[in-house]
Amino acid sequence: MSTLRVVVLAVLAGAAMTGLSLWPGGVPVFWAVALGLPVAALTALGARLSGPLEPLWTAVPGGPAAPAQHQAATLAARLAEAAADPHRFTTRVQPRLRRIALDRLRERWPDLSDVDDPRVVAALGGEHALLTADAPPTPRALAALLDRLEEA
């Protein structure tokens, strides 16, 4: 919301509160203004923090690959954090890698329930170890896993 609209909305809300305090409430002018100022400030704050009120008309991602694409997009930041802390890899990155792998391989086998399924092990080959290892992968190993998932 533009600054001008925020100011106008805040002034209107403060004036409305002041007017309602004066006319039917019979409150002295000083106290009516004192009641109107916090209302104006809260209205300005709410209008500024509310963001755009117009609807966002972008297309919803569709298709079976959409969850995997979303997970892959957040994976890079998690890998950067996990490079210095192996515990972060096992708690943050590895669960996302597993979800990506399962989402991708469920296109072929809808009944998959876990990455320890023999079909997953066979489809991913040596890269399957990245889904169960305790240490973060090298960038090449991760790229090989993602390439293998793309082929699957």
Binned, the helix content reads: 55-70%
- Which structural class do the helices and strands define? mainly alpha
Please give the domain count: 2
Task: Give me the count of strands.
Answer: 0
Number of helices: 6
Could you tell me how far the N terminus lies from the C terminus, measured between alpha carbons in angstroms?
A: 46 Å
Oligomer: single chain
Shape: rod-shaped
Rg from alpha-carbon coordinates: 28 Å
Order of helices and strands: HHHHHH
Low-confidence runs (pLDDT<50, min 5 residues)? none
Share of β-strand residues: under 5%
Sketch the major β-sheet: none
Instruction: Give the overall pLDDT as a whole number.
Output: 77
For this entry, give a set of tags.
152 residues; mainly alpha; 6 helices
Q: What layout of secondary structure does this protein have?
A:
Layout: H1 3-22, H2 29-49, H3 66-82, H4 86-105, H5 118-124, H6 139-151
Concise description?
Helix content is 64%, strand content 0%. It is mostly helical and 152 residues long.
Plain-language structure description:
64% of the residues lie in helices and 0% in strands. The protein has 152 residues and is an all-alpha fold. Helix 1 packs antiparallel against helix 2 and helix 3 runs antiparallel to helix 4. The longest helix is centred in the first third of the chain and has 21 residues. The two termini are 46 Å apart.
